[in-house]
Structure formats: structure tokens, C-alpha cells
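Sequence in, structure out. Go.
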Amino acid sequence: MQSKATTPDQYINELPDDRKVVMQKLREVVLANLPKGFKEMMGYGMLGYSVPHEIYPNGYHCNPKDPLPFFGMASQKNTINIYHMAVYADKKLYDWFVSEYPKHCKSKLDMGKSCVRFKKLDDIPYELIGELCTKVSVEQWIEMYEKNLKR
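Output:
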């Protein structure tokens, strides 16, 4: 279920009211905590934060016309999802997140490779997500991305 919205504001405004509040709060947490250099944009039908071409001209290897994705969030049919690429690329960061999650959230962690799904809207660990956003700078993400791409 990908959105056709072309701006983050349009994306959020098209959501049902209960989702709108949650996604706006998530957006504020991410914007307040992401290191400088990441740029908010729409990508892959969701709200995303990427390394712009001005910083990383190579872009994303799957489509170099796209900026290098880093973090995304989406309102899906039954869940709100966040996608943090460094959690997938860095085992140490993954382990940190998995160990911290139960300290911030009552529900069981529902996680894929880089995707964390939240079924209960009132059980989203905003503080933990904010802290996760601070963990990787643009420079660190580019280095991690290139290292993993060469494998």
C-alpha cells in the first residue's frame, strides 16, 4: 500500500486522523534527532530520510537517480512501520536496539531486517526511536553502506 503523495505534509494529511497524529509525532521525533545532512522526502511511497545527491552523488545502487535511503516510516493497513537501514547493516546497532526495545515497549518486538512494525498505535516507543536516530551520522551511514555494498 504505497502512497502517491509527493510531499511529507501531503502524505500525513491523507491519513486517517488516528494515524495522522502518530505519524506526525514520529516525524517530529525523527526530525529532532537525525544528525545534520539527512534530507526529508517521499520515497518508495512512504515518508523517508535520505542522503541527498549533494552529499552522496552516487545515489542508491539499485537506482542511482534516487538518493541514498536511510530511514523511512509508513502507515500500512494494520501497522505503522519504521525502516532503519543501519539496523540492518550494523549488527552492533541491531543488538543494541533489540536489547533496548523491551525497556521502552510493552509489546513484543515485531521486526524484519530493517523494518519494525507497530500494531498498537499507543505502544510506539518514541523516545527509543529518537535515540536510534542519533546513532548514525551521514558520514557513518555512507561508510557503512559502501562497506556492505562491496561484499
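Check: The chain has a mean pLDDT of 94. DSSP finds six helices and five strands in the chain.
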